[in-house]
Amino acid sequence: MKILKQVAEYLEKGDRERVYELTRQAIEQNVSARQILDEGLIAGMKVVGDRFRKHEIFLPEVLMAARAMNAGMDLIKPLFIKEGVTAIGKIVIGTVYGDLHDLGKNLAGVMLKGAGFDVIDLGNNVPAQKFVETAEKENATVIGMSALLTTTMMEMKNVTNLLKDKGLDKSIKTIIGGAPVSEEYAKSIGADAYAYDAASGVELVKQLV
Amino acid sequence: MRPTIEFLGKNLIQQIVSEAYQILCTLGIEIHNKNVLEIFCDHGVEVDVDKNHVIFKEDIIQKALKSAPKSFKLYDVNGNETNDFSGYNVHFTPGSTSINVLDYKTKQIRKPVTDDYINYVKVVSQLEHIASQSTALIPADVHENISDSYRLFLSLLYCEKPVVTGTFTIDSFEIMKDFQLAVRGTEKALKEKPLTVFSCCPTSPLKWSDVTSQNVVDCARYSIPVEFISMPLAGFMAPVTLVGTLIQHTAETLSGIVISQLTNPGTPMLYGGSPAIFDVRFETTPMGAIETMMIDCAYNEIGKYLGLPTQAYIALSDAKQLNAQAGLESGIGATLAALAGINNISGPGMLDFESCFSIEKLVVDNEICKQVLRLVKGIEPKEDFPALPIFEELLKEKHLLISEHTRKYLREEHIFPGPVINRANRARWKEMGEFILEERAHMEVEELVNSYKPSTLAEDTKKVLINLMEKEGEKYGQTSLPDRH
After folding, report:
1. What are chain B's domains?
2. pTM
3. B404 to A66, A67, A77, A199, B408: CA distances (angstroms)
4. What is the mean pLDDT of chain A?
5. Whether the complex's predicted ipTM surpasses the cut of 0.85
6. What structural domains and CATH numbers belong to chain A?
7. Which residues 382-441 of B have a C-beta within 8 angstroms of A?
């Protein structure tokens, strides 16, 4: 469909206004939210992601595209319930208790949103209890945790343990990131995934949901 | 502000130049070439023909400096400008004339063959930060009498960039000039748009050989630019002090300028060189020594003082493999050379006292060149004043990744290295295959060889070049040229 191709094209260019306007027009033309999402917004973001991985474009362009994606999402989200469409997934993110470093977590949040995820950002200094409670309450299927300090990364284990204790570790997956953590550490605490950067984190979350 | 570096200062330069004049006008220079001696005789200079000896006169040196162009440009085979040798402009060119190539697979040196040369040219044609090519390798699979012209032939056939080259014999000049005329069409067109620079080397101390002095004259007759490559060795064939070596370098270079300008005033030239300190432990001439680089930068200052564009063999290494020594010596050299404003920086790709070329090193050095070219662009304010608005935006948005200011200036302010330089975090580097520098460089070489697109030089001209080369080969009994893949 021509209009959805245009949505994708302008999304690739990071043109928020055009994506918003074209999405509005598509809705007016009775194109389904599902189609707008899959053939317009997500199709555009896929191209952006591929180009980013090949270093043809850089983070600012990805984030511009993500912002354009959000503009379109704002319009089609209300139609999801009516159409019975589920979002790609819902994720709760935050920097763990005792740690105020949230740059990496913020970046991950922006990129997850850009990829079409419903993101609940709990900010920094988030206790384990809050991660789990929020995920339960919001029906999120993934918890994303970030830490910059070797002293605070231990806190991640409290979250995975709490999920286990509550018998939620099968329905709520965990992904961790941040300078001191690693694939090995993720395994050792029973987290489901480790991402070394925001972009790879988005791909991993797609597999987890 | 463009960052610069200086070693001498005006007073010291004037003293060095004055002493060099003294040497030329008192001790003179040996020139083992009757034609050149005759040129001096014709200009009323005191010549002892039997001893091949010329005592210079101050006015003739000054006249030569006056007629030598203050700048000149190079153009590719299609006539597009590539190099502007003026002011503090810097351009990189690969190191030149190595007798060995470092074989990536065996890690051993061997004699280069046609395939190596073609691979080199295919790679250099795509390296953005290497402005010209040089005849970097001496192919050993052709008759030795054509090994100099054959390099230029392959270079002109496969790569559009102008060429830094030189002859090994007097006779070779003819064919190497004819190649250029074939590309440009006429002598006038070649003069207007120079395609090559010929390296012409005096012999330290204070001598010119038959071949090299004749090369200077032959190039001048066709207005082909030359670079004078004086090579005093501090502590061996030159005074041990850096200033003493600079005096000798100045005298030798001035003598070349005079030969060139007496032959044809206005012939373009680079005030160049390849001096070195002499390592009295290993009996070697380290190009990667910091003192060697200091001499290079300092004679460049003298060249600039005399109003001439400059050149140096710097940005190379004495390491035997593509290792940390190769990186540090080439990196320091390239950085100093660019800060000093050496107009033509020769060196990338070269190892082992200018005797061994590595194509893998060339692609690594291309990254050094990229960074150094960014360095000399310096730091300039770009919508940074007043500063309040951008900081207000930062505090409001929490980041500036998609700020208009970021998007406008990101690619101007930051450069992005190619795949040879790895900036991934460790986890991603592991995921990418844990390749070390040497492996990444080799992959890049393979990638470039595969992605090579033939030169857009007219096919008819390519045929003329091939015809000329085949005839030249036949003169020395080489009935066919090696296959070209």
Report:
1. 1-379+437-485 (3.20.20.480)
2. 0.92
3. 15, 14, 28, 22, 6
4. 93
5. no
6. 2-83 (1.10.1240.10), 90-208 (3.40.50.280)
7. 398-399, 401-402, 406-407, 410, 416, 425-428, 431
